[in-house]
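Running this now, will post back.
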Amino acid sequence: MTSKITRYNTKGLTEQQWQNLRQMFTCKGMVGGSDAGTLLNMNSYESPVILYYKALNLYPKKFKMNEIVFHGKHLEDYVADKWQYFDGTEDGLIANHEAGRKIKKCRRTNALLVNPKFPFLFANLDREVTMHPLYGKKKGVLEIKTVSGYVSDKYVAELPPQYYIQVQHYMIVTGYKYGEIAYLKDGRKLGVQTFEADRDTQDRILLHAERFYLSVNTALQELAQNELATDDEKLGIAGQYEPDGDGSSSLEDYLNDRHKSKPNPNSMLGNDQHLDWAEKYIEHKQLEAYHSEQKTLYSNNIKKEMDRYSSNELILGNDKGSIRWNKQFIVKLNNK
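Update: finished.
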């Protein structure tokens, strides 16, 4: 990390104080690491549209701590500590820990970071790597996650793709050339993935982040000129610059809730674009019904076979993948 990077101290802040500081950056249109995956449409839990309205303070729901986030934050210290002993194997982790032999080291940054080369980005690292067996004393990014087996089984690499984007984002801000994600799966299995700086991915992050930053600030300027506008009028002003829609359920829920509050029903005249969207909606709705039936057909065929042999796991030959059937039915193919 170079001395040119501006540090905003977070040491000793309460959760609410930290959220307020982060919101200060967000309301300038700046993009944090967890936002980057959203802007690249890789976060199934949030839409770029919602991120945009949060930046404009026009999104009604505020952050609320939940139990998943609560446990994740408190397990962070544990995972960071055990990561220092982890050599990639269960036996090695235990042996190194018992011997007090750290093979990697990290430290807290206790700051939100802004690189003047990229004024539309900010970073909040979980830890900074200070020693690594592959990179010596070259510093790197360490991101810490707790994941459930249900979530990790959905991905070939066990981690949602937005986590990879988050680490690449942090490498842009810090200038570091590598980063790791240490994750605790189901509270009992430690995993680590290492990534080096990916120029193509970082260029995509920069492109989307700068575009978002410009959209937010253009909207902020117009809203400042219309301070007496009603909330509905402010949404109309902001809507001129909002990101494109996406297929996330979070955006669907937001639009449904927002539309319920509209005061008076009225009609509008559609154009060719609206007709195209309507036709595609009907087309995919029909395909959805067909594919849902076909999906059930194949899952039932598999379940019949597994039930016949009282199996809860089916190993596909030649390392092609596996199928697990406990509380959930999960098909995992190694080439998909």
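The chain is about 45% helix and 15% strand. More later if anyone needs it.
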